[in-house]
Specification:
The chain is about 25% helix and about 15% strand. It has about 250 residues and is of the alpha+beta class. A 4-stranded antiparallel sheet has the order 1-2-8-3. It has a 4-stranded antiparallel sheet with strand order 5-4-6-7, with helices on one face. The longest helix has 23 residues. It is rod-shaped.
């Protein structure tokens, strides 16, 4: 009986709900029974990265026996330090094996012969060109320049020679040949010593050959150098005059 009443009540309710709204715009109904929840949709895309946050506080220090980190890069080189004090001199080394004397060493003798041949050829070419004059063991040469005595002395010294110094008649004639060719007077390698009128070679040894002109020397201490005229005769002269440079080797 109860079941029948429930059915009638439900039918009456449905009849009421199906009645027209009698001209009203909206009809208010009773809410229905909620349906079952739907299935979850697919996950959405990741959002954009947020702004970088502030640096956090440093973490606690690790244990003292932790592993060391990798070594850092080398720094820039520092400025060069001052030179240290020289060290103590080392002990003398053992002497090397004794070599052969040059006169017995075939390699040394071969080199010396080769050099001698080249020097002889060079002397021959220079003599042929009139640039040098050979007399005995000496070679005479001029650069054609006229300078004072001290400048001439330095020029000859720098070239490995000395101011021309005739020590016999043959050497005097060889110097005369250059003087006559250039038509210039030339200083000779001697100077007046402490005693006026007494001349010495530049090594301070006494002169053993002279070819003074008549009444020469006559400077009495005022003319300390010696020059050769174009006739081969000698004259004492002041050392500040310009004369032809002739060196001997």
């Amino acid at each position: 009986m109860r079941l029948l009443d429930q059915l009638l009540f439900a039918a009456a309710a449905m009849a009421v709900f199906s009645l027209p709204c009698h001209g009203e715009d909206k009809c208010a109904g009773t809410p229905g029974i909620p349906g079952t929840p739907g299935a979850n949709g697919l996950p959405g895309r990741d959002g954009r990265d947020g702004m970088k946050g502030d640096q956090g506080p440093p973490g606690p220090m690790g244990p003292p026996n932790g592993l060391p980190g990798a070594p850092g890069r080398d720094g820039l080189p520092g400025p060069e330090g001052e030179m240290g004090e020289p060290g103590e001199k080392g002990d003398r080394g053992e002497p090397g094996p004794q070599g052969l004397p040059a006169s017995l060493d075939p390699e040394v003798q071969k080199v010396l012969r080769h050099l001698k041949e080249k020097i002889l050829r060079l002397e021959g070419v220079l003599a042929l060109e009139g640039m040098i004059t050979k007399v005995g063991d000496k070679i005479l040469a001029t650069n054609g320049k006229e300078v004072d005595f001290e400048t001439m002395r330095q020029i000859c010294l720098n070239a490995g020679g000395s101011v021309v110094t005739p020590r016999d008649e043959a050497e005097n004639e060889a110097v005369l040949g250059i003087v006559k060719e250039r038509n210039r007077y030339a200083y000779l390698g001697m100077k007046e010593g402490p005693v006026p009128g007494e001349f010495l070679y530049l090594d301070r040894s006494p002169v053993n050959y002279t070819n003074w002109r008549r009444y020469e020397p006559n400077g009495n201490g005022a003319e300390n150098c010696v020059e050769m005229y174009t006739d081969g005769g000698w004259n004492d002269k002041k050392c500040n005059q310009y004369r032809l440079t002739i060196c001997e080797f």
